């Protein structure tokens, strides 16, 4: 009994490394020689490990219980427990699936919206020539005044069927207007701001860019003084202030606005979109920038969108001019190198330009 | 929902270093930090608060032992690890109670923890055995053994605490207790 207790104590000390080197060596020998003692050592080691581990886990559990006591479990579980409502549960369980579904729906809506948005401009393109016959009867009085006017004795006295605007390209009587203004025309006359009418011939038609070049062939026409404005070859930027002069009625009307887009109807790169108020009769009118350069030709507007007017870029006037055969052009069209309007204020500019903008009257 | 956990949760590194250095504070923070996640998981899957506590504590013990064993490598976030362990334990418990275990409502990512759990089960069995053996041992043996082996009291202290006339008596008593305990432990 006593020996067993002593042996046990020695084994314990041995396992804990408390024996001196000599004692440990002696004990190792004893272990090697006596399998019973060796077995006791191994068993004791297993047991000691187990009880140490037991102690550790126990203290860990105690510590966790202390931490647990600090948590307000009741209110937490109130927050986190399954919601009595079926819908909320459904939401919590299928959150990710629903999120995916929702984003898919959103994406679909956006794509449909953008497709519709892209096609919004379809079929709402409205050219701005004036149908005069519709109001002919109402304008008898006006026609009479014109008839009695001494200035128009040489002019065509019948009311025109269509009206538009055009502007002089050269001093010898070349004018520019829209193709759609003079389309189907039997005869075309132009009238200047003093009310004088001249017969013109259509010398060039370009349906693609909607440009027509006219030449005054009337005998009463005396060549103009030098053209005050200049054709701009390069395109200009968005936001540039522009104005136009046109004949939506029988007197010239000024319209003022700005370039709102570098492309026209459905992204047409041959046109600008201009925010400018125009009316039937403005078609073919010159679009000028602040410096008096012609940057385009008013051609149409979007009838379902506010303030969307389209103007053909001036570059295409130059192309049209260069496409005219030399013999039909007669004398080469020339442009002022220096722009005499630059630096003048708007009123002065208009004063000069007015004489070069014509009302186009089309009969068929 | 997991964003409720974001405050007061220590970083993974803090926890590992804290546990390696026996920091009680780190363990507390860890415990408090991730408990709501497990509570949510358990009470949404046929369990109650007590189940959550048991499962969670088991998972923390597993993590603790793993860190203490020294070969711990962070292959995933601690949060994911704890969640995965709890999930595995709880599924096992549900299976034992023959409740349906399909269609578990998950709240976090899951990593594989089978190896760690197997190892833990072995240890846990030993723990249970030791607990049972100590219970069967009866007083005063249980307290003497606990004081000596777990609380690391000296024979002198035990002698005074239990009123033995000398340490030899105490040693004899301890020896007898230990023999009985060993018998109980190894036989069960």
Can you describe this structure?
- The complex is a heterodimer of chains A (364) and B (188).
- In chain A, 37% of the residues lie in helices and 23% in strands.
- By secondary structure, chain A is of the alpha+beta class.
- About 7% of the residues of chain A have low confidence.
- Chain A has a 6-stranded antiparallel β-barrel with strand order 9-10-11-14-13-12. A 6-stranded antiparallel barrel of chain A has the order 3-4-7-6-5-15.
- Chain A is built from 11 helices and 15 strands.
- The longest helix of chain B has 24 residues.
- Chain B contains 8 helices and no strands.
- The N terminus of chain B is likely disordered.
- By secondary structure, chain B is mainly α.
- Chains A and B meet through helix 1, helix 3 and helix 4 of A and helix 2, helix 3, helix 5, helix 6 and helix 8 of B.
Distance between the termini of chain B: 45 Å
Mean pLDDT of chain A equals 79
Largest sheet of chain A: 6 strands, antiparallel, barrel
Average pLDDT metric of chain B: 79
Strand order of the largest sheet of chain A: 9-10-11-14-13-12
Counting helices, strands and paired strands, the structural category of chain B is mainly alpha
Largest interface: A-B, 35 and 40 residues
Q: Helix-strand pattern of chain B, N to C?
A: HHHHHHHH
Number of helical runs of chain A? 11
What are the secondary-structure elements of chain A, in order, as H or E? HHHHHHEEHEEHEEEEEEEEEEHHHE
Q: What is the helix content of chain B?
A: 55-70%
How many strands in all of chain B? 0
Low-pLDDT sequence parts of chain A: 134-157
Oligomeric assembly? heterodimer
Proportion of residues in extended strands of chain A: 15-25%
Structural class of chain A: alpha+beta
User: Percent helix among the residues of chain A?
Assistant: 25-40%
In whole angstroms, the N-to-C terminal distance of chain A is 140 Å
Share in β-strands of chain B: under 5%
- Rounded to the nearest angstrom, the radius of gyration of chain A is 48 Å
Shape of chain A: rod-shaped
